Amino acid sequence: MTSAGFVALIGEPNAGKSTLLNRMVGAKVSIVTHKVQTTRTRIRGVAIEGDAQIVFVDTPGLFQPRRRLDRAMVAAAWSGAADADVVVLMVEAHRGVSEGVERILQRLDEIGEGRTVVLAINKIDRVKSEVLLGLTKQLNDRFAFAHTFLISAEKGHGVNDLREWLASQMPKGPWLYPEDQIADLPMRMIASEMTREKLTLRLHQELPYQLTVETESWEERQDGSARIDQVIYVVRDGHKGIVLGNKGETIKAVGRAAREELEEFLGRRVHLFLQVKVRSGWLDEAERYSEMGLDFSDGNG
């Protein structure tokens, strides 16, 4: 019998969530955009393990929010955790119980009752075994984790065990995505999302939600590389200059960062070309909000 459910990976920034997700992927996992209204967070990956489908919920790194965009990201992370069947807290072995981890644990105390929360101590190759044992005890004394996994997301240690265990926890029922749909999901959507994230990080509060990215063309080249042309849409002429930056330095930096992430994801060379165009009406298009992982009704929030 098939099973399917949602898993939220939470942790501080750079705890290794993206690396773990890439390890979980295998051949049958893709990044997808979640358009169902039950959660405001984006779906980042769908993994198949036996008869189980594991849908990973994208949660931005949890940190102390200072700007409005920070608060929105943290709110989205906790929303993803609250809606998930299983929550995986990732902690870096060499950093231990930092202030950030302690804040997350305090919040888990509030939402953790009746919820399956597991601990994944990452980067275990950076510390000695006695340190790992001490950290495992310290964290489990602090919170009643359902299970503890010692992993290295980068090297793959312990990742299969974690994936198999997550699969065993998924509720019985039909798959949420057809298997062929997972395999055939357009890479254009993934590429657009990566560039949009880089823009958001670079521009901070200047243009938090007032832009969108579309991949216009994707050309496979004979040498194995890919040429990707994207358009960044903004709502006003003044925003175009902000995205371009002084002498084009902002868009060059964004393009470089997006290209590097795409190359890492695809495992091959990418030639990325960005244009900026004004499209005043896109903020009123509900579909654009879904693509950004935002709820249209909360667009002014």
Short summary of the structure?
With about 300 residues, the protein is α/β, with parallel strands linked by helices. It has ten helices and nine strands.
Total number of domains:
2
**Tally of DSSP helical segments:** 10
Low-confidence stretches: 27-41, 294-301
Find the CATH topology of the largest domain. Rossmann fold
**Distance N terminus to C terminus?**
42 Å
Could you tell me the number of beta strands?
9
Approximate helicity band = 25-40%
- Which CATH-level-2 architecture of the largest domain? 3-Layer(aba) Sandwich
Percent range for β-strand residues:
15-25%
Q: If you average the pLDDT, what whole number results?
A: 78
**Radius of gyration, in angstroms, nearest whole number:** 20 Å
**Quaternary organization:** single chain
The fourth-level CATH homologous superfamily of the largest domain is P-loop containing nucleotide triphosphate hydrolases
Highest CATH level, the class of the largest domain: Alpha Beta
What is the H-and-E element order? EHEEHEHEHEHHHEEHHEH
* Largest sheet entry: 6 strands, mixed
Structural class: alpha/beta
Strand order of the largest sheet: 2-3-1-4-5-6
Question: What spatial form do the alpha-carbon principal axes imply?
Answer: globular
